[in-house]
Write a structure and sequence with these properties.
heterodimer; A: about 350 residues; D-Maltodextrin-Binding Protein, domain 2; 2 domains; 5-stranded mixed sheet; globular; B: about 280 residues; mainly alpha; MetI-like fold; 12 helices; about 75% helix
Chain lengths: ~350, ~280
């Protein structure tokens, strides 16, 4: 009898504490002009304000980019910032269904192909080109050559896989003429050097390199609805942040400077990076971008690149096995194998002011 | 005095030794299989912990199919030919070359260490600097290495040499100092020249220990080799691992890591054998 009472008390205690405790979610971000706002959202209390409104607890954690992807794939975090390409080839291709809830920006010149000594695209065959292989850098190079009708030259190029932390010094220390594909702030740093010029940058393929905030689909679909509340809180906080960022005047400058602090950057340098990042400051602009007809063409290009480079996994026999569901409900690939979805719900709610 | 379990005087039987020595291997493999099958039940497409079958297939492809960056030439028919054209062989060759050259470059360090230990002026000139240099974390010097040696093979080899040579140097120095001075005096009284003493008396008897110390630094050599290949390269075992990590190709990464372990074990074993063969009188290690 006594044991029964004890167990009753214990169970009621635990179920009570489970009710009282708010569900906790973690969002991971890494340093990039379009993602550093998360630093400010966490620091300024903006995230907490929205999390409280939706009755959840949101932890914001900074990662290096690659580890953030690993953590997301291992299901250690619930939401993460990543490009459309990595969303497809990391979690989606590893069987972790992923939903993009915020299309934050696209790279509009942040990524670039630079050369020394006035080389042209044609000259690159047989020469060394430094880049982080199998990332958007290689995608950019692939597109640069394709657009200029030099696709066959790609095979003749000598690609050197170079870690992003050392790519600037490695490029500068090489005396021979060569190319490099990298992103800001390295691009800005390299362009300041004598004899370095840009041959191609991501503003020539606008919208193909998108920067997203993604959530695991199983989190979003939790039966208690907490996942959706989490997504609503994220979107609410994000667009309040965007409104603050896009305002003008000293207050906005102060905000931008505090965001820049998140990547140990100065206001001037951060502004310079933003100038080549097409931010979707309003939810409506992000929705319009995601529903534009060429959105699907862009994603299809990225998907084909991933498949050709084996990024969807060596056992994936066809690109259709990692299917993408677009905002209008159409599916690219096998309908029963949807792994990446673009969900506009939360951006639309923000646009309608319903968050 | 009891000869019980876990006591110094215990005498485990042959079969007990056999079972005990393989126990942790079996436990490790079982733990992995358990974790992998649990993850696969949860997500059949999981790539973090591939199953044995997936790894076998990954290794089969790696060992018999050319790397993706290579043009698929005419299809080789025989098994050895296919292996020689494969990704695994290409990467192993590239890494082995770097490894071999840097190991060869470690031997001059032995000679320098010997001279530092024996010749006071050489010691005065080098010792303090080498002691300082030994504490420098070589990886943090990478930008300087790039500027000095370019981004090709030389900078990778220098990274290894800069990282490991000071240790070998100081070890040789200490071993040289450990030779009883009476022996050196004796050799001189028997009419030996300075270089006779250095090479025929001192080096001869410390060499097996120096060789051992190089052997024990194999892991450091490989660590620097991998760091170099991951930072900037076009081929090599660590290059492939770095590339596969970008899409969680653990089905190939795990076999690659085991392959590296096997190669290292073989190098270690052959170095031990060579040492025994060269110095049959040497009984340590």
């Amino acid at each position: 009898m006594r044991r029964l009472i004890v167990s009753l008390v214990l169970t009621s205690f635990f179920s009570f504490s489970a009710l009282a405790e708010k569900p906790t979610f973690t969002v991971g971000w890494s340093i990039y002009a379009g993602w550093t706002p998360y630093y400010y959202m966490a620091k300024s209390g903006l995230m907490r304000k929205w999390a409280d409104k939706y009755g959840v607890t949101i932890k914001v954690q900074r990662f290096d980019y690659a580890p953030s992807l690993d953590a997301f794939v291992a299901k250690n975090i619930d939401a993460c910032t990543m490009t459309n390409m990595e969303a497809l080839d990391m979690p989606s291709a590893s069987g972790v269904p992923t939903t993009s809830i915020i299309v934050g920006d696209y790279s509009n010149g942040n990524d670039a192909l630079l050369v020394r000594n006035g080389l042209t695209l044609k000259d690159l065959a047989g020469k060394k080109t430094l880049l982080v292989q199998k990332t958007v850098s290689e995608y950019l190079l692939d597109r640069a050559m394709t657009i200029n009708g030099l696709r066959d030259e790609l095979k003749k190029m000598q690609l050197v896989n170079t870690s992003d932390s050392d790519i600037a010094t490695a490029f500068l220390s090489e005396k021979t003429p060569l190319g490099v594909v990298t992103w800001k702030p390295m691009v800005s740093q390299l362009l300041k050097q004598k004899g370095v010029s840009s041959l191609f940058n991501s503003s020539q393929i606008p919208g193909e390199i998108m920067d997203l905030t993604v959530v695991r689909t199983d989190v979003l679909e939790r039966p208690d609805g907490s996942g959706q509340r989490f997504a609503k809180a994220l979107a609410g906080a994000w667009y309040e942040m965007m409104a603050e960022m896009s305002a003008s005047g000293p207050a906005a400058d102060k905000t931008l400077a505090s965001i820049a602090e998140g990547s140990q950057d100065t206001l001037a340098s951060y502004r310079e990076q933003l100038s080549t990042t097409k931010m979707f400051f309003t939810p409506k602009s992000a929705v319009d971008f995601s529903t534009a007809p060429d959105f699907k063409t862009k994603m299809a290009l990225v998907r084909d690149f991933c498949f050709q480079h084996g990024l969807l996994g060596s056992n994936t026999k066809s690109a259709d096995e990692v299917a993408i569901r677009y905002p209008d409900g159409t599916v690219l690939g096998k309908p029963d194998r949807v792994r990446l979805r673009f969900d506009l719900t939360y951006m639309q709610l923000a646009a309608q002011g319903k968050l | 005095m009891s000869a019980g379990f876990l006591l110094i005087h215990a005498k485990p039987s042959r079969s007990a030794v056999l079972v005990l020595s393989w126990f942790l291997f079996a436990a490790g493999i079982l733990a992995y299989l358990y974790a992998a099958s649990a993850r696969h039940r949860d997500n059949p497409e999981d790539r973090v912990t591939p199953t044995i079958a997936q790894m076998a297939k990954g290794m089969y492809d790696a060992a018999l199919k050319p790397a993706e960056e290579d043009e698929a030439g005419e299809e080789a028919t025989t098994l050895p030919k296919r292996f020689l054209g494969s990704m695994l062989w290409k990467d192993t060759k590239a890494s082995a070359w770097r490894f071999g050259v840097s190991m060869a470059l470690l031997f001059p360090a032995v000679i320098l260490g010997l001279h530092m230990g024996l010749f006071p002026y050489v010691g005065a000139f080098f010792l303090r600097f080498v002691l300082f240099f030994d504490k420098i974390v070589a990886l943090s010097l990478l930008p300087i290495l790039f500027i000095a040696f370019g981004i090709d093979e030389l900078s990778k080899i220098m990274l290894i040499v800069v990282g490991v040579a000071p240790t070998i140097l100081l070890d040789t120095f200490n071993l040289t100092r450990g030779v009883p001075p009476e022996q050196i005096v004796k050799a001189f009284t028997l009419g030996a020249s300075d270089f006779d003493v250095a090479y025929r008396v001192v080096l001869k008897q410390i060499f097996p220990r120096v060789f051992n110390s190089i052997r024990l630094n194999l892991k450091a050599v490989v660590l620097f080799l991998f760091a170099g290949e991951m930072i900037a390269s076009t081929d090599g075992l660590a290059y492939r691992i770095a590339l596969l990590r970008r899409h969680m190709g653990m089905d190939v990464i795990i076999p690659y890591v085991l392959w590296v372990a096997l190669l290292l074990f073989l190098v270690d074993l052959s170095m031990r054998r060579i040492n025994q063969w060269l110095h049959p009188w040497f009984r340590e290690a």
